[in-house]
Amino acid sequence: LGISDEVDLIHIMAYDAAAPHSSYEYVEESVKRAIQQELPPEKLVLGLPMYALNREIEDWKSYAEICENKDNPCQDKRTNQVNGYNFNSVYDLQRKTSYAYNDANIGGVLTTYSSMDTRNADLHKAIWDAILGKADLENKYTQSESCPNGACPEDSE
Fold first, then answer.
1. Rounded to an integer, what distance in angstroms lies between the CA atom of residue 15 and that of residue 27?
2. Contacts of 156 (CB under 8 A, 6+ apart)
3. This model's pTM is above 0.85
4. Angle formed by the axes of helices 122-131 and 90-98, to 10°?
5. Which of 47, 76, 90, 146 has the most CB atoms less than 10 A away?
6. Tens of pLDDT along 63-100?
């Protein structure tokens, strides 16, 4: 009997690595390594951190602390580095969630330090949009951002 026979889920902690602390490449490498070790994909759950890490000064901040200030540095949904702090952007989380569900076909995702999201739950919404297939990874925006209250009018011609 292996560990996978004894547990319900296995958390893949694909973050807190060298800068940037949670790259897409590190996620792919971590998931592939787990599958190569013959862990059942349906029990694998990818961890998605909601905090920023600065390796130079060994400090961390919440996503909200970085993004909810007068400069609004996260208005560009691809921004994932501010003043030496690396973090998952809205786009990064949608891409990783899509990878987990659609490419790697693992059991799901979980958030680490969920309370560090913005008051508007920007990161949680990004993950949910990716799960529902609303993330437009080519154009790097989500349907809920482009359509008020998620209600998009039908294309008319």
1. 8
2. none
3. no
4. 30
5. 90
6. 999 887 777 777 888 888 888 888 999 999 999 999 99
Measured from the Cβ of residue 126, the count of other Cβ atoms closer than 10 Å reads 28
Which segments of the chain does DSSP mark as H helices, in order? 3-6, 24-36, 63-67, 90-98, 122-131, 143-146
Instruction: State both tokens at 130.
Output: 């990716």
Give the tens place of pLDDT for each residue, 27-60.
999 999 999 999 999 999 999 999 999 988 989 9
The reply to whether omega before 20 is within 30° of 0 (cis) is yes
